[in-house]
Amino acid sequence: MRRLMYEARAQLASPVRNPRMATVIGRLLGLAFLVCFGTGLYSHFLQQPLPWMTFPTRPAGLYQVTQGTHIVAGIACFPLLLAKLYVVFPQLFQYPPVTSFANFLERASIALFVGASLVEITIGLLNTYQWYPFPFPFKQVHFALAFVIIGSLAVHIGVKLPLISANWRAAPVPAPEERHPVDTGNVETPTDAHAENEPSAAEGLPRTRGLTGRVLSYIDRTPELPARTSRRGFLTTVALSVAAVVGLTAGQTFAPLDGVNLFGPRKKGVGQQGVPVNRTSAQAKVSTTALAADWVLTLAVGGTERSFSRAELVALPQTDVELPIACVEGWSQMASWRGVRLRDLVDLAGGSPDADLRLISLEQRGGFKQTEMGSEYVRDSLTLVALELNGETLDLEHGYPARMIAPGRPGVLQTKWLSRIEAIKA
């Protein structure tokens, strides 16, 4: 078994399979996951804030940037994770499989990290297309796996820290006489049972002293080894892969890349009134109630209730703002909105702009038929009960007869088809 494992690792030997390359790819992958983790936590707590939390309302496009970055970093994890697995693949053939408790922690943590990461980024990508073929709730599992990934990554880094530290900086340029192991084909068994088959300084390559039969001779590095991947070629391939998967999808968030947005599920300017739509009126089952002649928006914010018809809302002083719709799936679209400032409407109804509000939609089912809005948004002059979009009466698909629009909020919290606004009692 030891000989078979040794032979497998010798066959997999490559200039890119070494601790330095593992460190280079590993720190890029670690950075991508940390960016995903931080921006993901921000998005999560925007949607499910703890009682003491408040959030910045400026810059108005903050969530557009954070969530767009979250999706871009997550997509970049695909080629980076595959590159990392390619570099460390020979370590799967280590014999014995576990040599110490520290080695056990290392292998267990990396197995957990890889497994959780593959599930996390896969379901995250599927969520951008709003396709859920898996039998578990996306939001809860995605949130929990983020902590599993970061925890297992921390354990792995802790165990491998000496090796990472030794290879963090670029290694010296190898001397011309540096050699590589090549199998000569003589078959016998190793004379030493364990120590002489431990990994060498080049991770993934076994030691060679003490082998009496299957001898690995050393020859100069030459171009006659076409199967070997050069370091420069490998890094170029990884860089181009990351640039391709990011560049061909990031246009759904970042306008300069819109022209090459080939794979993003949303395209800027495509949709009713030039704005994409996530949840339609048919999905929300509001077509009848939203178009009803007796629709009113009821405010229960000052101890009493006051209702406004759409005509009454239109007759109030109107405000124009430029705000993006920025969705958790990573796409965003800047748009022009016109409507009544929420703080003015709350004041007119006898409420306080320092109160947190509950926004209730005509939608009867769905996780966001009711949303909550902190007082920091209520007080902001950019927060509107919107009645128009891009110079036209709000389309039914965008929330007619009235919807909420506020700076720095996820699209799922910009409640469409508003029916009622009420103060949340402390």
TrEMBL record:
Key words of the record: Membrane, Transmembrane, Transmembrane helix
GO BP: respiratory electron transport chain
UniProt GO cellular component terms: membrane
Listed transmembrane segments: 21-45, 65-89, 110-129, 141-159, 234-255
Ranges where the Oxidoreductase molybdopterin-binding domain occurs: 292-424
Ranges where the record places region Disordered: 175-206
InterPro entries in the cross-refs: Di-haem_cyt_TM, Mopterin_OxRdtase_euk, OxRdtase_Mopterin-bd_dom, OxRdtase_Mopterin-bd_sf
Keyword ATP-binding included in the entry's annotation: no
Presence of the UniProt keyword Transcription in the record: no
Pfam families per record: Oxidored_molyb
Gene Ontology terms for molecular function: oxidoreductase activity
Superkingdom, natural source: Bacteria
The protein's name in its UniProt record: Molybdopterin-binding protein
Organism: Cryobacterium lactosi
Upper taxonomic lineage: Bacteria, Bacillati, Actinomycetota, Actinomycetes, Micrococcales
